[in-house]
């Protein structure tokens, strides 16, 4: 009987430690902060193979860990959709409630995640930078409005919020579109289904479906190579590439933002109230320091306040 009681205590202690996100006290007592982050070829997220420039989100999370006076441990996240998965299902696509499973094993998601009302229902979002969903094209293209999208090819990915934004903006303007699902192999577009030929007034969407791996640089190169005419990304990532990559700067230009200026955010469990409050306070204070501006300039190539001015001009 005694052994059975001990077993049950150990069992339930283990279960609750797994299913509950760690509190701020537990983080401080342990001496480390666990972040979830993708290892992707993006200097604004995390690229550990480049020691002098490991990623804006990584360095920002490290600054928060230093603020707490703890070490930082990293859990690599394979897919963006993993941030929104519960019991093997995508909570956003299936309109599920609850908290994503990832918070069973990490304290903070440190990634470029656009703040949306749907996402805010699932997690606590702590904004760290102003951002907009931005269309871009080749410098040689004469595009000034959505109406000029007719007859053009727009490349995006199903897992991105940009795809939803694109569809909403096209529907709002009653622009007809067709969707051709693709993958990319050595810069060549591979159609995954029988090709649907658009009319001259159709907008053709080249869509990378959920579950298909792709290089984040692919959208830039596909536009430069004229396999697509337009793409849409977050302005934070786009300007980091434009100001730091000669090929992109020489060939690409921003068009206009798809909607109002919003934010990118780190995410936490809505149940870790003290952690969320401390992280939110840290972000507010850190953004006012020269250290934040230097970090921003290191990765984006321009002053933080100059970036805000550019965003206002692309409205």
Automatic annotation (TrEMBL):
Xref: PANTHER family: ARGININE-BINDING EXTRACELLULAR PROTEIN ARTP, MEMBRANE-BOUND LYTIC MUREIN TRANSGLYCOSYLASE F
Protein name per its UniProtKB record: Transporter substrate-binding domain-containing protein
Organism of provenance: Marinitoga aeolica
């Amino acid at each position: 009987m005694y052994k059975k009681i001990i077993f049950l205590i150990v069992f339930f202690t283990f279960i609750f430690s797994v299913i509950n996100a760690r509190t701020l006290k537990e983080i401080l007592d342990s001496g480390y902060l666990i972040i979830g982050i993708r290892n992707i070829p993006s200097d604004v997220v995390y690229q550990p193979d480049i020691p002098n420039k490991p990623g804006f989100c990584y360095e920002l999370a490290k600054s928060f860990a230093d603020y707490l006076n703890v070490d930082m441990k990293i859990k690599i996240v394979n897919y963006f959709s993993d941030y929104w998965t519960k019991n093997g299902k995508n909570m956003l696509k299936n309109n599920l409630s609850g908290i994503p499973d990832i918070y069973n094993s990490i304290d903070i998601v440190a990634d470029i995640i656009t703040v949306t009302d749907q996402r805010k229902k699932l997690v606590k979002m702590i904004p760290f930078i102003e951002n907009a969903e931005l269309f871009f094209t080749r410098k040689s293209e004469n595009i000034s409005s959505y109406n000029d999208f007719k007859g053009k090819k727009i490349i995006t990915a199903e897992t991105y919020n940009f795809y939803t934004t694109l569809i909403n903006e096209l529907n709002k303007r009653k622009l007809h579109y067709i969707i051709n699902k693709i993958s990319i192999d050595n810069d060549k577009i591979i159609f995954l289904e029988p090709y649907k030929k658009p009319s001259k007034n159709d907008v053709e969407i080249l869509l990378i479906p959920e579950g298909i791996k792709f290089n984040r640089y692919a959208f830039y190169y596909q536009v430069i190579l004229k396999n697509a005419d337009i793409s849409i990304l977050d302005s934070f990532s786009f300007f980091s590439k434009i100001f730091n990559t000669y090929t992109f700067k020489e060939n690409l230009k921003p068009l206009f933002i798809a909607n109002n200026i919003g934010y990118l955010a780190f995410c936490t469990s809505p149940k870790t109230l003290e952690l969320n409050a401390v992280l939110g306070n840290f972000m507010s204070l850190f953004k006012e320091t020269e250290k934040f501006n230097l970090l921003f300039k290191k990765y984006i190539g321009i002053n933080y306040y100059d970036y805000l001015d550019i965003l206002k001009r692309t409205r």
